[in-house]
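2024-03-11 09:14:02 INFO receiving multi-entity request
2024-03-11 09:14:02 INFO entity count = two
2024-03-11 09:14:03 INFO echoing inputs for audit
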Amino acid sequence: MSSKSLAANAETQVRSEPTAKKSFDDSTLIRMTKYTGIRLVTMAITVTIGVYLTILIANMGGYVDTIMRNEIRDNTTQSILANPSFRTLSTEAKQRLIQEKITSEENRLGLNQPFAVRSLGYLTNALTLNLGRAMQMTSDQGSKEVRLILLERLPATLLLTGTSELFLFFVSVFVALALSRKYGGWFDKFTIALSPTSAAPPWFYGIFLILIFAAVLRVLPFGGLVDVPPPDNKIDYALSVLKHLILPAASVIIASIFLSIYTWRTFFLIFSSEDYVEVAKAKGLTPRDVEQRYILRPTLPTIITSFALLAITLWTGFTLTETIFLWPGLGITIYRAIGLYDTPVIVGSTIIYAYLLAITVLLLDFIYALVDPRVKIGGGGSK
Amino acid sequence: MNALKHTFRDLIRYPSAVLGLLIIVGLLIVAVYALVTIPYDEAVRLWRGGEDVWYLNPKYAAPSWVNFFSLKKAPVSFVVNTADGTMSKTVTPSNEDISTTDIKYSFDYQYDTFPQEMILYYTATFKDKLPFASVLWTTPDGRKIKIANMAVDRRTTYRFSQDPKLPKTLKSNDVMEGLFADPKAETPTPVKGIYTLEIIGTTFESGSTLDAQYVSHGELYGMAGTDKYRRDLMLPLLYGTPIALAFGLLAAIGTAVLTMSIAAIGTWHGGWVDGLIQRITEINLVLPFLAILIMVGTFYSRSIWLMLGVTIVLGIFGATIKTYRAVFLQSKESSYIEAARAYGASNSRIIFNYLIPRMIPLLIPALVSSVAAFVFLEASLAVLGLGDPVLPTWGKVINDAFTDGALYQGRYYWVLQPAMLLMLTGLGFAMLGFALDRVFNPKLRDM
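2024-03-11 09:21:47 INFO inference complete, emitting structure
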């Protein structure tokens, strides 16, 4: 969705030129500090509210507590009534035992405190990146630490998102640049004609790829990360992972490559029809120079923004694609955590995403100032 | 109106727009047809129905069009009934009270494999004396086989494969092979030609009747096939159309109109209103969209309308609000707005009568394209198991198929049919949206 607005962004950036030439009197340093301070504070508030909202939703405003209490009551009652060693106890003693167990279990999960207090506790823990312990989930190693659960899944997610998104980004930018050089050719028309295919999400193409390559041709696996049992040899292991990676990565790439190329192509075309590019061409500069200095340079901020935003999305993983391909990544983990009402895991992954987003947005402001001389930090039209 | 005509003329110059429009119109016709022929309550009842509703259908039957593409023709299921006249019934009274009911059905069997099962459902009316029925089977090569003799209660079900005596009569462990196979052939192959099933019934009271329903469960069924629960997939394929279109259109229009109005109000008033909207947008960007939808689905309710509401609310403050804001900031300074202000137009008049209409060309292509995205979002939720629990939707069929390992088992039709419809819907709206983008943004036209 964000790439669709690229062209519009580019236009507004060009037009906002005059606003940057405001007062040069006040010292740049003070201005920068003030600006950074304000940015930091708004960012912090944004992240805090966002994370608190997620905590509230992830707890259904406290209703998850009731669900969990009922679950604890059921499980404890049943386990004690079914335990043969307690059979000799009187009904009263059994009841007392059940109550004790329930209380201790509720204390373990922190359910003895009111939700309002606990939610603030969650918030401080989350903001200080003290992710705590999961309620139900465990990592494959058997740990209940949220940090470990998420870290364990991170490599699989990064492998999938990293390969596919990086491939997608670089291939589409370079192909788009090549297409914008001689637009109107058959490959150009082909890309435009195919760009509506990006309306479908990756999992949708995943279904077709599974059908063709796994079900009919039987050349690639249906899903998973490695063969079962996993090969002992490191090289074989890597090859097996690679084999399992092909289909999910391909489905992500197919789902957006044409639209991505089309968007970038149009974006570059808008810039290459600017007057200053015509002037450069008239001066007799080589096409290579024109491209590098007059087309790529002014579009750099947009390219960087979209790359940075892409880098953040790598973290969230593709829930649906991971589900279809049974890829043990973060997306599927969060989905399972929600199914288990495991708030710490949900909040843990949200806070990391929120922090990454905030840091990226802040960094982008500075990178803009570096690559785009027109954008003077704090100078006028901050959008 | 003239402008509309002009736009339309521009639009149909693009083949993709024409194709997209045709697809959308086709889907709308299907949607209307589905809503008219199957009332909402009926659709829900059928979709939620178990064996009691769908007992006449075979399990996991592929659609009958499969035969067009395969060399080995598989038998298609059918149901015939004396009650509606699809199976002939002649009653000849012989004695005062005794009469003979002759029920007969002949069919041409031109398939290369055997049916899964054949069942007879009898219904009889009588006071004390049960009617009696004997079943005869005639093969194309002229063999006559006595299947069974039985007394018929008010409701009697006779399953050919579950009759313990039948394998002995047929000298074959597999009843269907015994009934259809050529006894001389080495490997069991069905004899092609006319088969006749005859039920000779005798009723022993005046006013006593005997009716029968003959069900043959082949390997194929209808135009869409059936699933694990014997449900006819035509129901979700047909009824999924209005649901998908309703979800996609409502979400797209709701999000677009609200986003635009809020962006316009914020930009026009400026100050804290604008600031607040900006901050809400930033907070919303931090929130994980899909995770929240999953949470709402898991914790609260999986109703499609709740999902629609949450989608719209989360969608309003999305990244597009910033794009709209940038454009509004420019048009806010235009001279016609200046003029409106000068003659004393109210704020709401300026926003809704002057600012927003100017934006509609920018809005429409994005709106049309986003319908596709929302249709897929609904399917995505269903694939995660968060589809509406009562409604038959395309995504739900894909989800059912996936949980049942349909691709692994080779039941491709189960996944392919809803997927094709989704693809068609997505492509239709996306192609139209793309063409509209070119019509409304002349800058893109010659690029």
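2024-03-11 09:21:48 INFO post-check: Chain A touches chain B through 62 residues (CB under 8 Å).
2024-03-11 09:21:48 INFO post-check: The first helix of chain A runs from residue 6 to 15.
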